[in-house]
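Deliverable D5.2: sample structural annotation.
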Amino acid sequence: MSNTISSVKERLYVVKESTWGTAVAPSNSNCVRFISCTITNSQPEMQRPDKNADEDEPIGVPGRRACTFTVSMSMAGSGTSATPPDCGPLLEAAMGHAVSGTTYALGGVIQSLSIWKYDQTGLAQCAIGSVVTSMKVALGGDFPTLEFSGEAYWGYDSAQAADGSTPSAAKGGLSSFPTEPSAPVTNGVPPQGFDCTCALDGNSFGTLLSTTIMLNTGRQLPKDGMNVYPTAPVTTVRTTSTDFGLKEDDSANTVTLVQKAASKVLIVSTFAVNGTVGTANIWTWTLKNQMLNAPSLDGSAPQRHISFNGTRAHPTSSGAYDSLGLVIT
């Protein structure tokens, strides 16, 4: 008799790869608490273009293989000063810069990951050669959250491992599907998502409602040429932007912010999620050289809201890599 599979018994492991597309088995220390994770393979049927001499469509042939993933999680620090959070490999892969502590800057490194998802009895999956193409940071809710999305070489799973017909190219160098580590460890707890502070153009605002930071890494896995699978990752233009809302007041700081949006004066924005000092759980995000878009006003709440959306951040100079930074203390 078959058993149903519980979606609450899933575990996630994220491991850095030394070579793109070569899977690295997980260990206990690679475990990451998460909200959701989807790993989706795609290999559409290509329809045969030749005439068939009747009205029925003939059977096609398998197309190119591709895989995408999305992982979301609470923004939990490690609990130990200067120690990276469990989601550190995802942050490094998004930012493009390897770190040994808790200061994350942008860079030109393309870090690929093996993302493993296990269920106690159900299908186990691995997104081999995962490359982060976007990161979304959401502040202002009950919990601050991170979301990472991207492309992978292929989504290998325990069913394919048990199928003798699975081609070796789909296995990422594995001879068998690894069993889940026996004693996974996760660290830290998330701070409150609504305990945030912000500084805009050097001025503190206690009226922050919510903030979303979006990073498009500009990386992709080409799907062309003489290959069934994607080829090694390449880079295009990276973009960073924010949406943030404030409770409107008639303070000089708010008026100045609106004026700078109109005159297109560049500003620096800092958003901090406050946790316990010394537990690596205060997350401070800094965006430089932002040219604010015109604000929108919302009068549906008792106090009017003012929002600045889609504002891009830019580096100070070519090669500065400073349009977005994160420090966890």
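Annotation notes: The first strand starts at residue 10 and ends at 16. The helical segments are 88-95, 158-161, 252-263.
The annotation will be released with the project's public dataset once the embargo ends.
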